[in-house]
Amino acid sequence: MHPQTLIKTKQAEKSINGISTQVVCSEFSNYIFVVLTQYGKIGTLVSVTPDSRTGDICTPMYTTKVLLGKDEALTHVCAKHLATFISQESGNRPVLVGLALKDSSIDSINSMKELIRSCQVW
Question: How far is CA 42 from CA 32, 34, 52, 63, in A?
Fold first, then answer.
């Protein structure tokens, strides 16, 4: 019998600029999965992956791809901004982000990064 592998998950809720914001972070073997919502739904799913370039000693570039939902420029910007630090802190692992945001201002996004950091599972 094989030991069960548990998926580490943490969640939190905070009011950001007067809007209830929930985050759930889960660590899978191949991805970090983060849901950030102000609607109580998963929203648009975006894959954020570091580009692997051999011999490049700089900070990796990240590729975003909308898997489900609205494929808009602001979605890519928000997902990349939120997921970059997660990927870097988890050893450049890919991040799957679910975004359902009412407020995507830079101040709110920075507050959301701190909320995500409080649910760190990587």
Answer: 15, 9, 28, 21
